[in-house]
Amino acid sequence: MPKKVCLVSGCNRNYKAKGYCISHYDRLRKYGDAMPDKPFQRKQGGMCSVAGCSRKHNAKGYCATHYERLQRHGDAMADKPLQMRRAKGAACSVAGCNRKHAAKGYCYIHYRRLKKHGDVMAHKLLWPVRPSHRAMMP
Length: 138
Ligand SMILES: [Zn+2]
Ligand SMILES: [Zn+2]
Ligand SMILES: [Zn+2]
What we know:
By secondary structure, the chain is α+β, with helices and mostly antiparallel strands. It folds into 3 domains: about 1-40, no CATH class; about 40-85, no CATH class; about 85-125, no CATH class. The chain contains 3 helices and 6 strands, in the order ββαββαββα. The termini are far apart. The mean pLDDT is about 80. Bound molecules: zinc ion (3 copies). One zinc ion binds near residues 92 and 99.
């Protein structure tokens, strides 16, 4: 029995769906047309094979993140968008505040304000300066 392949002439990728291989089927879904005349562009420099993922290839055709998923879940879950990981040690997004990030882009204090007042009141100082601290001021 002959192996079932993509019906696009010249394409001998494995059959996936609707008569096409995964790559042509992907086009069909994305553009409504498999564009059999248009050659596939080779991804340069080894990229993740997940459509729409432009991360660097790490292992088994996937980027580090998708490969991690594959290992953890047995599936790269290509349809599930990757969540941007917040950089470690990120600070509060209020200008001038360099407290550690706690939630929603804010430090704990600003986040608490946001919940309480619906506004982080960025212009308002966090703590009133107490008289006892005045000695330390220039
Ligand atoms: Zn094909
Ligand atoms: Zn990827
Ligand atoms: Zn803050």
